[in-house]
Design a protein that fits this description.
single chain; alpha+beta; Alpha-Beta Plaits; four-stranded antiparallel sheet; two-stranded antiparallel ribbon; 29% helix
């Protein structure tokens, strides 16, 4: 079961996530999402639990708890919504294709 983890202190590492979520069961993977340009944490991440039962246990045990001075939000991750390739890329292509100089 893949979990969304929000409200992470910005210094939280993937190892910190693993240590925290191991309390609820086995961890398949843990990822802290970072900004592409700066490399700094965006304050959220994802944890893949070994079984749905362990995922539910993690939600029950950790949602609303404090880590550092921040309150965690732990929920089942939703699938990403596809928006057709990204807004900026579409805009650039449409501007280019409507440019009559070419």
């Amino acid at each position: 079961m893949r979990l969304y983890v929000g409200g992470l202190p910005y210094q939280t590492t993937e190892q910190d996530l693993i240590a925290l979520f191991e309390q609820a069961g086995s961890i398949t993977s843990a990822t802290v999402i970072t900004d592409r340009e700066t490399g700094r944490s965006k304050g959220f991440g994802f944890v893949e639990m070994g079984t749905p039962e362990e995922g539910q246990r993690a939600i029950t045990q950790l949602n609303g708890t404090l880590l550092g001075n921040r309150t965690l939000t732990v929920s089942e991750a939703r699938e990403r919504q596809s928006n057709g390739g990204g807004g900026q890329g579409r805009e650039r292509r449409s501007n280019y294709s409507s440019d009559n100089r070419y």
